[in-house]
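User: As part of a screening pipeline, I want to sanity-check one entry by hand. Below is the sequence and the SMILES for zinc ion. Please return the complex as structure tokens so I can compare it with the automated output.
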Amino acid sequence: MQNDPIDIRCPKCGHVAHFHEPFRFTCVIRYAEVPENAHLWGRVVVEELYPEHYHWHQPETPKPTFHQGKETGPGYRLNHRGMRECACCGTLEKATISWPEDAYWQWNIDGHQLVARNREHAEMILAYLRERKRVPNRKPALRNIPTVMLTKQFAPVVQDHVERALEQA
Ligand SMILES: [Zn+2]
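Assistant: Here is the complex for your manual check:
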């Protein structure tokens, strides 16, 4: 399960801020090891990371279901309500975001959209763009790169954009 924070633009200072899910989700390995204050959602352990701001309300789905971005339906919606942390202006507060619209790492090049979850993901994408011989089967984290951006003509352009963004932030 993806528990790493995603990067958004800080509305106060414009720098990179982290968005934290208010809960940590992990799979049960042994029931004896479930933390005392945690909730159980099927076989998923749910821990409240900011209990002063967010309490867990079990979605009405028999088994754990997660949604990303604009997907709807019963279950838990990731990348939506959580905490925004900005080291630059010292903010840690409740925030509701739209993903991927609020992504800090996003590029629109010739009408094609590329989004990275966070700096690590952007660096992973950059490394992949730099590869001379890319394996055709992409890792899940790299599947959101529009295929057109991987062409011989286009890849160096995209690479340039990503490099510059990483250098400036
Ligand atoms: Zn800030």
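Points to compare against the pipeline: The CA atoms of residues 3 and 24 lie 7 Å apart. The pocket of zinc ion is lined by residues 10, 12-13, 15, 17, 86, 88-89, 91 (CB under 6 Å).
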